[in-house]
Write a structure and sequence with these properties.
The complex is a heterotrimer, with two copies of chain A and one copy of chain B. Chain A is an alpha+beta fold. Chain A contains nine helices and five strands. A three-stranded antiparallel β-sheet of chain A has the order 3-5-4. Chain A has a two-stranded antiparallel ribbon with strand order 1-2. The longest helix of chain A has 17 residues. Chain A is elongated. Chain B is mainly α. A three-stranded antiparallel β-sheet of chain B has the order 2-4-3, with helices on one face. In chain B, α3 crosses α6, α4 packs across α5 and α8 crosses α9. The longest helix of chain B is centred in the middle third of the chain and has 32 residues. The N terminus of chain B is likely disordered. The chains are: A alpha+beta, B mainly alpha. Chains B and C meet through β1 and α7 of B and α1, β2, β3, α5 and α6 of C.
């Protein structure tokens, strides 16, 4: 592939990913590229070009999206409106849904050993992080919950396999006598 | 047990912030982590004693306890009594199994807590990293094509006709009756082209719509026949009352 | 100004302009920059960095915003078909022409029981659904209207006989002296 053709493909990919509101897949880019140019190679070159810059190319939710570099967040928060962080109960519930999906509300409550507040469920639904996914065929047919593509997007995951393995989560025993990290 | 006379110092502190826990399992996990070993090797018996000491302490300061705290306390009391029997018996086996279930639940909760922390430590979109604030929409809307279907066409047709019918005053359709003069002309022109003694029906005009028009035309044709019979141009006959009336050219005798 | 400080300012400006929902002014950027760094100089350097790339820094509405390079926009443009509906009057007129063709404008008005606006007739003509087909030999010689092959195509009809029969659509008022048609 000529250098000129590659430069043109890079510009096109840059413009396409920049303009889109949602992640752009290699397939979508491929449809715009001339024959013989691999979308994956172009996206990889694009990622290299933006490495270390104020805006970086991230692979999320099955596609590619430009995002600001994490280290700039403290300064950007001064000028960009930031929604509130999810409370601990919501984060725990989200983790349980992510690892046990599809999962019912009683199953979530069983794992947490505590009732699930309606406000917690509402917060996750409103943020679009979880969604109903059918019903469990047991008496009462409770709703099953699963994570959404917005969950992947929000936490910068390519897909659910990007979640750490359960075994790896507990490698470090909790520091003795330490209070739970966040309240 | 010592705890009954003087609860451990740590337990006293826990009593005061009991409401900070999300439930008995939350407290148990916190106590287990206090054992300074990893969760696979915690002592369930020590854990049970700590929990019961906390509940006892809470009762001493007359703290209202929710039912689930007491249910857990009752269950743990049962578990403790079984764990204390000599090993090898059926009760001891049952207790070991129950203790293992409790330990597994604590491990799972701990794992999910760790997962929540892992997620929380990710650069979160909208919190730590930001996507493009003003994405460009490069799509062009083409409205040149029409969305039409047959159902819509027919619905529109019926609607138009119904509305028109509703706005128009009702006018009874004008009856176009076959006059005697028309019947005379038709009878005269057809006479001879039909075989002898044809019924009057044969001389009716074509395209008569309603029964009324037909009866009117029949009456006119009979009148025309009578008129022509008077001058001898035709002859009429009827075999019986209400039988068909027949007609033939007049003049020569049969 | 040190090169390192300038690189940092460039990254921040890049991220800020990227993440902002509206164009970023030099003044807004200046509030985030350390003392002694000119926002105008940073934005100018940022513009140079993006010159000739797939995305360019454009000065709009008193601020700065990233924009797709003009030469790439046509290649990225996606055409979204949004078929439009005909207004009710046009649809009724079209139906009447279809069933009564060839038909004059006064006849259409008589059937519809309403006047026919010129714009309605124009809309049907422009869409190519009806066309003039000679004149009626009555005083004034009004134009006769009929449907076109485009009409058949649009409704997926092979020919006009594929239209549902009028008798199947209408229950006509019973003529006097006649038994009413079956209910």
């Amino acid at each position: 592939m000529s250098d000129e053709a590659m430069q043109d493909a890079l510009r096109l990919a840059e413009a396409m990913v920049f303009a889109a509101a949602a992640p752009v897949t290699a397939r979508q880019l491929g449809q715009l590229l001339p024959e013989g140019i691999e979308a994956e190679a172009v996206l990889s070159a694009l990622r290299d070009r933006y490495a270390g810059r104020g805006v970086e190319l991230a692979e999320v939710a099955g596609g590619f999206q430009f995002r600001t570099a994490p280290d700039l967040a403290p300064r950007l928060r001064k000028v960009v409106q930031v929604p509130r962080r999810l409370p601990r109960a919501a984060m725990e519930t989200l983790a349980i849904v992510a690892y046990h999906q599809p999962v019912t509300r009683p199953e979530i409550e069983e794992i947490r050993g505590a009732a699930l507040a309606q406000t917690t469920l509402d917060a996750l639904l409103e943020a679009g992080l979880i969604a109903p996914k059918g019903r469990k065929e047991v008496p009462g047919r409770p709703t099953l919950w699963a994570t959404t593509p917005a969950f992947l997007l929000q936490f910068g995951l390519r897909d659910l396999r990007d979640l750490p393995k359960r075994e790896d989560l507990l490698v470090e025993p909790p520091a003795p006598g330490q209070a739970p990290p966040e309240e | 047990m010592e705890a009954t006379s003087e609860p451990p110092a740590g337990a006293q502190a826990l009593v005061l912030r009991l409401e900070g826990f999300e439930g008995p399992l939350d407290l148990l996990l916190d106590l287990a982590r206090g054992q300074k070993v990893d969760l696979a090797r915690i002592s369930i018996l020590a854990l049970v004693e700590q929990y019961l000491a906390v509940i006892e302490g809470a009762r001493r300061v007359r703290l209202e306890l929710a039912a689930d705290w007491l249910v857990m306390a009752a269950w743990l009391t049962w578990l403790k009594s079984r764990l204390l029997v000599p090993a090898g018996g059926e009760a001891a086996e049952e207790a070991e199994e129950a203790a293992e279930v409790l330990a597994a639940r604590l491990r799972e909760l701990q794992t999910m807590r760790a997962a929540a922390q892992w997620l929380g430590a990710r650069p979160v979109l909208g919190q730590d990293v930001f996507a493009r604030g003003a994405p460009e929409d490069l799509s062009v809307v083409d409205r040149s094509r029409l969305a039409l279907d047959l159902t819509g066409l027919i619905r529109a047709y019926l609607l138009a006709l119904r509305r028109a019918a509703a706005t128009k005053p009702y006018r009874p359709p004008t009856a176009s009756l076959w006059s005697v003069q028309q019947a005379l002309t038709r009878l005269a022109s057809l006479m001879g082209s039909l075989p002898d003694w044809s019924t009057l029906d044969a001389y009716l005009p074509e395209g008569l719509g309603t029964a009324l028009e037909r009866r009117g035309a029949l009456a006119s044709t009979l009148l025309a026949g009578l008129e022509m019979a008077r001058g001898g141009a035709v002859r009429l006959r009827q075999e019986a009352a209400f039988a068909p009336i027949e007609v033939r050219r007049g003049g020569e005798d049969v």
